[in-house]
Amino acid sequence: MSETDPKTVQDLTVVVQNLLQQMQDKFQTMSDQIIGRIDDMSTRIDDLEKNIADLMTQAGVDEEESANKQQPPPPK
Fold this sequence. Notes:
mainly alpha, 76 residues, single chain
């Protein structure tokens, strides 16, 4: 068979198309996994920010109360 034989060209075309489809499927799977992990990370970051804000609020109240107790009254 010659390399320009239509049967050979068709077979090669089918093989290349199958390979490209497999690659596209793998990339789509990886993309979906990455997006899922980014969504999970986003949720965790949101939770962490909320916890930090809560802790800062608690610490701010505690620091404010402590500061009021430790500071002498303002002069009159």
